[in-house]
C-alpha cells in the first residue's frame, strides 16, 4: 500500500512574477482552486493519506490552505457559499499534512532527499503540482499506483514531447514490455535534442522505492549544477527494475504561461461552463 506522497514546493515561480512575489506559485488558481489542491486531490483519489510538503520560505499560505479557517467557516455557515469550501474540507478530512523546508534550492533530487524525514523507509509518491494532469476516467497517479501494486518498483510517468523540446525534461530510454509500459535502461536530464535517445519525457509524477534516498546522497550535481532525481532513478535502474509509464490523460505545464492558460480553459470548459 502506498500511503505517502511528497509535494516539492520550494521553487520561486519567477515565470509568474509579479503574481508570485508575495504568494507561492502553488497557490495560483486554476479557475477557483489552487494548483496544488488539484495535485493533492489526485493523490487522495489514488489512496494517499499522508501528504508531505517540501516547502521553503514564503510558502506559509500552503499550510493555511490545508487547515481549517474557523472564522471563514463561521461567516459562511448556512449561506449558499458554504458549498464552495466543501472540496477543501473533504481534502483536509482525508489526510494528514506535514511540512519540511528545503533550505537551499539544489534541485529536485535534493528536494526529495529533504523529504526523507517525512517519508521514512517505505515507497512513496512524488507529485509536481506544476504538471497539471487531467483524465476523465481514473487520475494519472491512480493509474501509476495500480501498476505499483503489480510491480513493486519505482515508476515514472512519461509522455511523448516534440523532438526539439527534450532539453526541458528528463528523457527515458527503455524496452516496451507491454503497450505504454517501458523497462527503463537509461535516463538523461534535459539533453539537447541531438543527444536525446528518445522523445519520451518524464512528467511530474513518480513512485519511488526508499532506496532512492541513499542513491541521491551519493550523487554529484548534474544538469544545471543541480542534484537531479533523474540521475538517481537512472542509477536505480542499473540494479533493479524501474518502469516508465505512458499515462492516459492530458498534461498541462503550469510552470509556463501557455500551459497555465491551457489548464484554466480546460477546467473552465469541463467543470464550470
Ligand atoms: C523536473 C525534472 C524533469 C522532469 C520535469 C517534469 O524538471 O527534473 O526530469 O521532466 O520536472 O515537469 P523541472 O521542470 O523542475 O526543470
Outline the structure in words:
This protein is α/β, with parallel strands linked by helices. It has one domain: Alpha-Beta Complex (Spore Coat Polysaccharide Biosynthesis Protein SpsA, Chain A), CATH 3.90.550.10. 33% of the residues lie in helices and 26% in strands. A nine-stranded mixed beta sheet has the order 5-4-1-6-11-8-12-10-9, with helices on both faces. Strands 2-3 form a two-stranded antiparallel ribbon. Helix 5 (108-114) crosses helix 9. The longest helix is centred in the C-terminal third of the chain and has 16 residues, at 257-272. The model has no long low-confidence stretch (mean pLDDT 95).
Concise structural overview:
With 273 residues, the protein is α/β, with parallel strands linked by helices. 33% of the residues lie in helices and 26% in strands.
- Summarize the biggest pleated sheet: 9 strands, mixed
Instruction: State the distance separating the first and last CA atoms.
Output: 37 Å
CATH topology (fold) name: Spore Coat Polysaccharide Biosynthesis Protein SpsA, Chain A
Number of extended strands: 13
The CATH architecture term is: Alpha-Beta Complex
Oligomer: single chain
| Helical amount | 25-40%
The proportion of residues in beta strands is 25-35%
Residue windows where pLDDT falls under 50 for at least 5 positions:
none
Question: Any key phrases for this structure?
Answer:
273 residues, alpha/beta, Spore Coat Polysaccharide Biosynthesis Protein SpsA, Chain A, nine-stranded mixed beta sheet, two-stranded antiparallel ribbon, 10 helices, 13 strands, binds 1-O-phosphono-alpha-D-glucopyranose
Amino acid at each position: 500500500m502506498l500511503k505517502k506522497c511528497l509535494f516539492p514546493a520550494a521553487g520561486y515561480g519567477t515565470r509568474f512574477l509579479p503574481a508570485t512575489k508575495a504568494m507561492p506559485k502553488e497557490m495560483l488558481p486554476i479557475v477557483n482552486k489552487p494548483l496544488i489542491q488539484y495535485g493533492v486531490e489526485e493523490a487522495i483519489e489514488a489512496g494517499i493519506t499522508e501528504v508531505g510538503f517540501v516547502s521553503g520560505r514564503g510558502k506559509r499560505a500552503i499550510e493555511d490552505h490545508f487547515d481549517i479557517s474557523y472564522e471563514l467557516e463561521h461567516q459562511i455557515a448556512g449561506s449558499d457559499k458554504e458549498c464552495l469550501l466543501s472540496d477543501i474540507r473533504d481534502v483536509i478530512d482525508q489526510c494528514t499534512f506535514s511540512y519540511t523546508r528545503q533550505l537551499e534550492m539544489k534541485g529536485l533530487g535534493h528536494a526529495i532527499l529533504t523529504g526523507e524525514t517525512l517519508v521514512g523507509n517505505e515507497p512513496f509518491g512524488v507529485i509536481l503540482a506544476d504538471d497539471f494532469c487531467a483524465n476523465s476516467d481514473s487520475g494519472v497517479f491512480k493509474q501509476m499506483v495500480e501498476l505499483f501494486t503489480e510491480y513493486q518498483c519505482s515508476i515514472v510517468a512519461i509522455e511523448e514531447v516534440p523532438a526539439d523540446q527534450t532539453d526541458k525534461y528528463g528523457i527515458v530510454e527503455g524496452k516496451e514490455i507491454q503497450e505504454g509500459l517501458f523497462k527503463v535502461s537509461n535516463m538523461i536530464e534535459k539533453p539537447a535534442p541531438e543527444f536525446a535517445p528518445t522523445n519520451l519525457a518524464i512528467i511530474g509524477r513518480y513512485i519511488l522505492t526508499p532506496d532512492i534516498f541513499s542513491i541521491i546522497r551519493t550523487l554529484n550535481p548534474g544538469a544545471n549544477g543541480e542534484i537531479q532525481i533523474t540521475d538517481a532513478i537512472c542509477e536505480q535502474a542499473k540494479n533493479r527494475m524501474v518502469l516508465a509509464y505512458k499515462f492516459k490523460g492530458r498534461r498541462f505545464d503550469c510552470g509556463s504561461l501557455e500551459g497555465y492558460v491551457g489548464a484554466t480553459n480546460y477546467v473552465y470548459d469541463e467543470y464550470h461552463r
